[in-house]
Specification:
Number of strands: 0
Number of helices: 3
Distance between the termini: 20 Å
């Protein structure tokens, strides 16, 4: 695994970070609902917005040398 990172497999490009950020925000949204910090109505509105924003970001980001 360490050899893969030395060969450039780990990238810091913004468009490669969109999916991990989406997963974190998704999980955080549902965790906050489970802890009764946010309402179910907020979660019903938030998760589609997160998906749309991530899709728009992915669609409009330019490709880098590693792609």
């Amino acid at each position: 695994m360490e050899g893969m990172m030395n060969q450039g497999m780990k990238c810091s490009c913004k468009h490669h970070q969109a999916v991990p950020v989406l997963v974190i925000l998704f999980g955080l949204t549902f965790l906050l609902k489970a802890l009764n910090i946010v309402t179910a109505e907020f979660v019903d509105m938030a998760w589609p917005v997160l998906v749309i924003v991530a899709g728009l970001f992915k669609m409009t980001s330019r490709m880098c040398k590693c792609c």
